[in-house]
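Feature request, filed as a ticket because there's no other form

It would be nice if the structure record came with a short human-readable summary line next to the tokens. Right now we just get the raw output. Example of a typical job, pasted below so the devs can see what we mean:
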Amino acid sequence: MTPAPVVARRASAAYDATGDAISEAAGRRGLARMRMQKLLIIAGIALVALGLLWPLLAKLGLGRLPGDIVVEREGFRLYVPIVTSLVISAVLTLVLWLINR
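Raw output as currently delivered:
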């Protein structure tokens, strides 16, 4: 009887539950998928939080800043919050910059 051949495993390779090697590209795709899932969950939570805080933000005047465009006609209202968007963008940029620092 001849002994079964010994298969050497690469130290850098990942293995699935059956012991088969997973390619590095597949491992990276899995990590990218997990990051995307985490990003979508965080974005959803942020949108829910923003929706809950919206009445408070409206009391502070956010949404009615000079530079926001409002067109009102009979049965029609167009609201384009240009300056409000710029303020929110600047605040979020500053907060995220401080977090990642």
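Something like this underneath would help us a lot:
The helical segments are 24-59, 82-100.
The two ends are 63 Å apart (CA to CA).
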